[in-house]
Specification:
Chains A, B: This is T-protein. Two copies of one chain form a homodimer. Chain A is α/β, with parallel strands linked by helices and 379 residues long. Helices cover 63% and strands 10% of the residues of chain A. Chain A is built from 15 helices and seven strands. In chain A, helix 7 links the parallel strand 4 and strand 5. Chain A is globular. At the A-B interface, helix 1, helix 2, helix 3, helix 9 and helix 10 of A face helix 1, helix 2, helix 3, helix 9 and helix 10 of B.
Chain lengths: 379, 379
């Protein structure tokens, strides 16, 4: 490098340092302003996540960016990242309490990760939360006395029997709800055991989300929805979106979405292990897309085998989808064994037609994700 | 909402508008300064991607952010996103030509997506590029005359026969290289057919990357590396990282990384299609993680069946990995059929131990990815 080049680069880098320092001040300022919006909203009991306003703001910024020769996608991505930061710190302010007259909340299985998250959210909204775990059944009646909501969040395998055996004498006005990822059987058990208001919830996210903003909670109505309307509002105030669903339709989808997918990821991991693949080598030769896919499989095994067994063994009907998979795999393998390239392409096109416009949409979506995975790369 | 609340929110939103307008100016300014760095680097022939400098800069910014009470991860994410933007616009400036004495470059299969990308990169670096496609073999000798590099990028299935049948009389000083995702057989074919310098390359990315910055190109050395040293440098100047590998080890990894994974995604898509799953419903009940997984499967089918057939049928040895998978699937399915929950958990823990620390690393990595997927959500 010549001296001139070095000097030029030094000079430009100094200017970039200056810009970045202004950038940091602006970010600080913006986060503070949004926090003030949060405080005002909190006092007025408004939800933190307002999709329409967010979309309008982003649209305006994109247009402003375009006018200045900045890529609209760049400003949108940066603002979305900033919004995440703001949602995360909503917790510091707390949330409006929709139903101050409720009485306390009992969370059964409150030591589990999801139980803890909901306990925290309720506490941040001013409710008194009491946890009931395995060892607390001796004084359960005491805990239930005066409770306005009992929330069940125990492993799927024990949910129904626990409801039937332990929750048959709750105060009648008390709401009974659960957070199980299967909805039909628990809802039935709750309705048959408890005479008061009943609702089934399925939070569609892991317990490690930093904020509930934009997350989905599936709601399967049980009995007396007007009595738990406040709970829906409360969850909305945390930023989540409520999706009402029929329990049977939800469970059918879960067989494909959860059980089938987890099972096939599990087998993929098992297969890598049995082949004694060398993970270092796999990563060395991984494009961003494969690294992402490997991460999606590997992440399973950082979690609890019990939890995945619960999910996979939860519905007997999942066995059908999981068994069908092996038949399709065998058929496709036969194409490979016989070198039937044309047959493979014919099947491929059949699936491609079935996906229709979705495949293009998925390609576009995944491209954006892969770009942000690539941004994270260091070497 | 009270009038006071409305007024307070209006006022704060006005202030945020002002901050965002300053933010846009700063982004414009920073992009311009980085473009100037690019121009200076271009003139001096320096690579656009300098990992060590990037890491140092990010470390410094993180510390500055911390001192200002801004989350270090926030500024890092924003700067990484900005760097992507800068890499993308490097193409507008062009790249240093490492070997101006080369003579022209012939790209066989230059109408393919990857061929077009490399043609573009070479052209942006000042090389004269000529494409040779199916219909051009009549005047192939003319195209080869005086060529410094012949680059083969045709479907895997035809690569070796094309090399052996068509490239046996290239000028002896000319470099022969290929971009096939399998390396052993093409390298052997090139070495046996051509007496001059030979090198096998495997770009570990799709043709739709906007920039080669941070992307990996695998290099399998063939003959006379000193003659194609400039090519390695040239690829480095485009921002890619070169990974030297033994062709056999590379191909073995590809059986698991590419063939196995694509095949199982293919069957997953086939299975959804045969089950006549309703994609709308699946998406309605999808957490961000499942949406991501569905997108990773669906994206396959937006692409060419021919291409995937090429990859999956490329190596006979892939059949072993793909067949082993069905055995492991069958074993795991047996656990499910017999309700052997304990057996499932035992297998799970076996795989978990095998993944070791990687599973935790993958969990952390995928969490960051899922957060950025969630940022993109609109409703």
């Amino acid at each position: 490098m010549t001296e001139k080049t070095t000097a030029e680069l030094e000079n430009l880098r100094g200017l970039i340092d200056g810009v970045d320092s202004q950038l940091l001040s602006l970010l600080r300022k913006r986060l503070d302003l949004v926090a003030q919006v949060g405080t005002v909203k909190h006092a007025a009991g408004l939800p933190i996540y307002a999709p329409a306003r967010e979309a309008a703001m982003l649209g305006k910024r994109r247009a402003e960016a375009e006018a200045m020769g900045v890529s609209p996608q760049l400003i949108e991505d940066i603002l979305r990242r900033l919004m995440r930061e703001s949602y995360m710190s909503e917790k510091d302010v707390g949330f409006k309490q929709v139903n101050p007259e409720l009485g306390h909340i009992v969370i059964i299985g409150g030591q589990g990760q999801l139980g803890r998250l909901f306990a925290q959210m309720f506490a941040l909204s001013g409710y008194e939360v009491r946890l009931l775990d395995k060892d607390d059944w001796d004084h359960a009646d005491e805990l239930f006395d005066g409770a306005g909501l009992v929330l069940v969040t125990v492993p799927i395998a024990t949910t129904c029997s626990l409801i039937r055996e332990r929750l048959d004498h709750l105060p009648e006005h008390c709401i009974l709800a659960d957070l199980t990822s299967v909805k039909g059987a628990p809802l039935k058990a709750m309705l048959e055991t408890h005479k008061g208001p009943v609702v089934g919830l399925h939070p569609m996210f892991g317990p490690d989300v930093g904020s509930l903003a934009k997350q989905v909670v599936v709601v399967c109505h049980g009995r007396a929805p007007e009595k738990y309307q406040w709970l829906m509002e409360q969850i909305g105030i945390w930023g989540a979106r409520l999706v009402e669903a029929d329990a049977g339709r939800h469970d059918k989808a879960m067989q494909l979405v959860q059980a089938m997918r987890h099972f096939s990821s599990f087998v993929y991991g098992l297969n890598l292990c049995r082949e004694q693949a060398d993970i270092d080598t796999l990563l060395e030769f991984s494009s961003p897309i494969y690294r992402l896919e490997l991460a999606m499989v590997g992440r399973l095994f950082a979690q609890s085998g019990e939890l995945y067994a619960d999910i996979i063994f939860a519905q007997e009907e999942s066995l059908t989808a999981i068994s069908d998979f092996i038949d399709n795999y065998r058929d496709a393998l036969e194409l490979l064994k016989t070198g039937d390239r044309a047959g493979f392409i014919a099947r491929f096109n059949e699936v491609s037609n079935w996906f229709g416009n979705y495949s293009q949409q998925f390609l576009t979506e995944s491209r954006a994700m892969l770009q942000s995975v690539n941004d994270m790369r260091s070497v």
